[in-house]
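User: Okay, second chain of the day. Same drill as before: sequence in, structure tokens out.
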Amino acid sequence: MSKTLAVIQARMASERFPGKILEPLPADSSVPMIKRIAESAEDVPEIDEVLVATTTDASDDQLVSFCKNENIPVWRGSVDNVLSRYCSASETYSAETVVRLTGDNPLLDTDVLSACIQYHQAEGNDYTNTKGLPIGMNCEVISASALKKLSDEMDRLSREEKEHVTLRFLNDKRFKKSTMKVEVPKVYANLRLTVDYVSDYLLMNTLFLLKANSEKNGMDFIEEVRNTRPWLFDANRENIQKKQFESFSEEKEAAIDILDRYDMKRISAFLKKTNG
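Assistant: Same drill. Structure tokens below.
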């Protein structure tokens, strides 16, 4: 029988918001963000087990202690080689399918995640992702056999490919991959429902307060909030989202967009004139 393992990559160190994964959601509760993510993943019928993949650094001892007290399995590995954490956890827990989750994204759409796992397995993919949901709600599914292949080739992978778990899958033609598009209005794709900055957390705190009095979940809940309180999502709209770009030109366009947003016209004009 195939086993599907959800792996939540998380660590206490964060340049912009240290310790965020143990901050409660909402703020007046006793349930940290990492536990919210684990509980949501456990609600997905296709997922057999959920674990947190963190580092061997002493700064993550507090996270490990919390997970053990909550009976959440933990796997500890390299600080910089995040991919190796997935490879080792997948092999140790005898998984055939691995769902990649992160400690930044506490609002999962469990119905979409369930559908993505089914789609991934039906298509026989090595890697599957979703597209169309707000930032922080899309999901990724990887076959354990594909992770094993990368594990065997780890010495030949770049630093970026080790740090960004799915980068090699996106660029390596050996792997069978596809995207499951989620049909929602385009306006939702630009909403920030991830926690990188304190302002992200303040929005998420409000959403979880509202969620406690709503019967809806996932995108249905987000649509409900946006229909009644659209101004809430302006709270973190100007935050910059980290992204792994597939090409220099793509990264350049993103840089120009940021410069234009902050009215840095001269440097923006210079980049627009340069080739590449």
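Residues 66 and 72 are 8 Å apart (CA to CA).

User: Thanks, on to the next one.
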